[in-house]
Amino acid sequence: MYKPPPPSARRKNIEFEPLSTTALILEDRPANLPAKSVEEALRHRQEYDEMVAEAKKREIKEAHKRKKIMRERFKQEDNIASAMVIWVNEILPNWEVRELWWQGLPPSVRGKVWSLAVGNELNITPELYEIFLSRAKERWKSFSETNSENDVEDVSASVADREASLELIKLDISRTFPSLYIFQKGGPYHDLLHSVLGAYTCYRPDVGYVQGMSFIAAVLILNLEEADAFIAFANLLNKPCQLAFFRVDHSMMLKYFAAFEVFFEENLPKLFLHFKSYSLTPDIYLIDWIFTLYSKSLPLDLACRVWDVFCRDGEEFLFRTGLGILRLYEDILLQMDFIHIAQFLTKLPEDITSEKLFSCIAAIQMQNSNKKWAQVFASLMKDNKEGDKNHSPALKS
């Protein structure tokens, strides 16, 4: 019976342990077996070399594959990062493409384009969203344990922390696009909207929840995945105009209203004087329009078209849209008094069409004495703050 030799007698001609069974073909046979012939030894050596070469080829191939995947990933990230630069500097100046923007983005790409346009200056990640969502859920749990359902409306008044506005979200969600039903309790998007708004109030307790936010978040949720909707929502509300309104920065809001009135008088002088005769200031109708980015005031499909161009042109288009609405209904408004104008602009006709509105918006010229919106607003920012106090009595009350 064959008895293997002791370890010291084995593999005297090699200086390493074979890494696999393929390396065994290089070893000499045990002393009690016939030795390999020269031809057999050479053949085994050749087979081993071929196996090693194949292994190296596979390894090199895998390494190239990994490098290619990484290159593609970096390329994709670079493309996303530079997408807006290309659109702004190369694509948008092209008249035909600008016309496509004006006609409205295809719903299938709308969310992606909005995300790119809004950007992510806050560097929010999906992981960060999950952290603030968890914090919101903890607070909801603590509120439910310490407050009865009948006390919900008093929570924000009784708790100093702005995160207490979490409970107010529940009340407002049911008022968001009520005709769609999808955001109502039990609807497919109710919990999603609740989560995005709750996470935001924990992310920005200095702002908290403000009525109107639910409409903006809802529009984003309809066009983006949950985490992406939160990222776009937080960055959108961090823009100067939205931040001024949602933080109720009276000084900044007055300057926006003053800039709006400059172009109001320029484009619609008769209606401007009519409003002035009734001391009807922009805050009476503009606040609601700006708070919801027209998503509450206009039909949803039309509001999305406004968002398309707003994402391209920035805050200026929000005020240009407001002037477009006033132009569309100028003849009707000229026949109304203060109360009826306020009621009309608070609840616009439901039969408003995108063709008529955008035709009126296109007729609005955002230039005054060779100054564009940004220049007019910048000059107002330099004005003495005391001089702005009389622009809007309703805001001071």
UniProtKB/TrEMBL annotation:
The name this protein goes by in its record: Rab-GAP TBC domain-containing protein
MF term (GO), any: GTPase activator activity
GO biological process, one term: vesicle-mediated transport
SMART domains: TBC (SM00164)
Keywords recorded for this protein, A-Z: Coiled coil
GO CC terms, sorted: cytoplasmic vesicle; vacuole
Pfam families the record matches: RabGAP-TBC
